[in-house]
Amino acid sequence: MNFALIIESLGGSHARKAFSCGVLALDRYIREQASQDVKRRVGNCFVAVDRDAGALAGYYTLAASSIPIASLPEDQAKRLPHYPILPAILIGRLAVDARYQGRQVGSALIVDALRRSVGAAPAAFALIVDAKDDQAAAFYRRHGFTPFLSRPLSLFLPIATALKLFG
Predict the structure, then answer these.
(1) Most buried by CB count within 10 Å: which residue of 114, 117, 127, 154?
(2) What's the pTM?
């Protein structure tokens, strides 16, 4: 990464109209829906801004979620309390502007999501994601996420594992 990136909560001053990641639904979300979701408290949106250019390099959303313990691989589930549902945090959307793809912005967004999740007042066992396709799932697997047993495009990363991976 050869530019100064800051990640902060979405605000009214962020220029979202020029954002284009190549996926129409993700582009439309940041332009038209994200601020409404934040106001309604159904999710938070965090943006990566190229400090020098003032451009929106990427964004992600976080929301409360849960994981049925039966959906975890056995080696994970056997080390946990036998609660039917475990608390989790969902990365609902993650997108990087086409101008910044391949420049580690997505990795920086995941690390930021982990830091925010670790610092959250309510406890959470894991971060979860629903990848849009196999390419997105591969991106998350490279960052330590594990697929759920019955849904290969839905993945999770235990917060404790994240702390070890990302310090």
Answers:
(1) 127
(2) 0.90
d(CA 94, CA 78): 30
> Is residue 49 within 8 Å of residue 14, measured between CB atoms?
yes
pLDDT in tens, 108-123: 999 999 999 988 878 8
- The catalytic residue positions are 140
Count other Cβ atoms within 10 Å, centred on residue 83.
11
Provide the number of structural domains found in the chain.
1
- Where in the sequence is the domain holding 100, given as residue range(s)? 5-166
Three-state SS string over 53-85 comes to CCEEEEEEEEEEEEEEHHHCCHHHHCCCCCCCE
Look up residue 39 and give its amino acid: K
DSSP state of 43: -
pLDDT, tens digit, 9 for 90 and up, residues 9-60: 999 899 899 999 999 999 999 999 999 999 999 999 999 999 988 899 999 9
Query: What CATH number has the domain bearing residue 99?
Result: 3.40.630.30
